[in-house]
Design goal:
8 helices, single chain, alpha/beta, seven-stranded parallel sheet, disordered N terminus
Length: 215
């Protein structure tokens, strides 16, 4: 198998290290996930949609620092704030992975145009979940960082970028390429640049286990 398939038991040790590093209580992530679970109810899309979009295909994950890109890819995953890049380029990705940071209105628009939104809950985005999650009127699937709930999944990953790669790996991509990942210079909206850099350092560590192409 080219890529490791992440399940929660495999992801949990890394997750616990992240919590310890940032001094975050796990309970906050669990509270956020319960809120998202209530917000999506029975309307969440089944994981089989991700399977159909990814299995056996070449997948491009687009980050917010993406320049103009070219290449022959079967599926495109937009990581968070890259939604504004793709909207400007008039490109609708197959999948949009977001924790509701950046210009969420661009993300909502791409969802309305057909992108499957994978909306993520964590302890620091409870207000954003309440504000924005109901606005995603297209297909949506919910994810979380702690132990999964029946309608809120965990495929591994921490930031939008590495979580997108984990999703592609989990659902059997043939090849994964990424563009627009800048681990040193955060792009997009961030309350605290130093915290954002620390998050990106973790994203880089997570991605080191994957055989992926960067350009």
């Amino acid at each position: 198998m080219r890529f490791p398939v992440v399940n929660f038991l495999e992801w949990e040790p890394t997750y616990e290290q992240i919590l310890k590093d940032f001094k975050w209580p796990r309970e906050n992530d669990e509270k956020a996930a319960r809120l998202l679970s209530k917000l999506v109810g029975d309307s969440t899309a089944p994981p089989e949609i991700l399977e159909e979009t990814i299995r056996g295909k070449s997948v491009l994950v687009v980050g917010p620092a993406a320049p103009k890109f070219s290449g022959d890819f079967d599926s495109v995953i937009c990581a968070g704030s890259a939604a504004s890049v793709l909207r400007a380029a008039k490109i609708v990705p197959d999948i949009l992975v977001t924790d509701l940071d950046g210009d969420v209105e661009d993300q909502i628009l791409l969802n309305k145009l057909g992108a499957l939104a994978v909306v993520h809950a964590h302890g620091d985005n409870v207000d954003a979940l309440r504000r924005w999650a109901p606005e995603f009127t297209g297909r949506m699937l919910a994810t979380m960082q702690a132990a999964p709930l029946p309608n809120v999944y965990n495929f591994g990953g921490f930031t939008d970028g590495d979580r997108s790669v984990c999703i592609a790996a989990h659902f059997g991509a043939k090849h994964i390429a990424v563009t627009g990942f800048d681990f040193e210079h955060p792009v997009g909206f961030s309350k605290n640049v130093e915290i954002k850099k620390k998050k990106l350092a973790w994203a880089k560590r997570i991605l080191e286990k994957f055989e992926i192409s960067y350009f």
